[in-house]
Amino acid sequence: MSAVMPDESGIASGLFNTSQQIGGAIGLTVLSVFVSTRTKSLTVAGKSEAEALVGGYQAAFLAAAGFALTALIVGAVLLRATPSAGVEQQSTAPSEQDASVS
Q: What is the pTM of this model?
């Protein structure tokens, strides 16, 4: 959001918050599907209700860890830090120490 122009900061913030809320809801829905599907398959296979539920949650936690790892990799590959304008100006301007040494 640091690259957004000041007059567009409100809309960028709104889009960010909306994406975060929608993403969380979709993520919870997907993980719930993992829980229910795995729990049902373990119950049909003859496991007790408690064992089946634990197996369902285990599948959901493994899926969540896989999603987090995928997001980490995608973020590391696609997101690059851009230097701010202040950093560029400081690095290109000669310092007072360099002038006194010469």
A: 0.66
